[in-house]
Amino acid sequence: MSPNASAVGCRISTRSSCSNSPSAKANPMALEILIPPEGEPVSLADVRAYLRIGTQGDDALLTLFISAAREAFEARTGRALLTRRVRQNFLGSFSPGFLIPACGPVTALHSVKSILASGALVDVSSNILSLIDGKFMLNQPMGDLNVEYQAGYAASTLVPYAHRLAILEAVADAIARRDGDGAPPGAREKIFWDQAFQRIKL
């Protein structure tokens, strides 16, 4: 990522203050999810087949584990496993060159705006920013920018097998932990999910 770019991982609540504020400068977050993804990269059937478990019960818990594992994977890797529309602020003074999106792979560029000192957003020429190989190419010097774009794979079948396997392995770890000490990890237990993905060596 450009040393001047301010960005965070893929997962930020759509109810953040940024989504309700007209002032981009007032937003301490660099990335906001405008339209969240639909579905998950692996299905309940995938998990059941991988874990060799039956077809009855635990659907709600398995669904929770799948979502938590996907969110942790995206936060750790910066990869959006399913399509979503996001808004990212690039804060600083930038020379022409690549700007690395916080969330990829980027599949479409929707809008580019300049962030004024007052926090107001002003449309700029579409020629200022180009999309090249999933990264943004800035074609002229610019200050703070607000960019809306689409990131993620269009369907679960397009998600790389290694990524899907990582989700399945993390869910398996969650089930093993539940069965081992009776304390299943919640969606907010970031340390557990980080450890799971460290073991997988992403």
Largest β-sheet summary: 5 strands, antiparallel
What is the rounded Rg?
19 Å
Reading the helices and strands in chain order gives: EHHEEEEEEEHH
Roughly how much helix do the residues carry, as a percent range?
25-40%
* Class of secondary structure makeup: alpha+beta
Nearest-integer average pLDDT: 78
Task: Give the N-to-C terminal Cα separation.
Answer: 19 Å
User: Hey, roughly how much beta strand do the residues contain?
Assistant: 15-25%
- Shape category: elongated
E-strand count = 8
Assembly state of the chains shown: single chain
| Spans where pLDDT lies below 50 across 5 or more residues | 1-29
Q: Quickly count the helices.
A: 4
Number of domains: 1
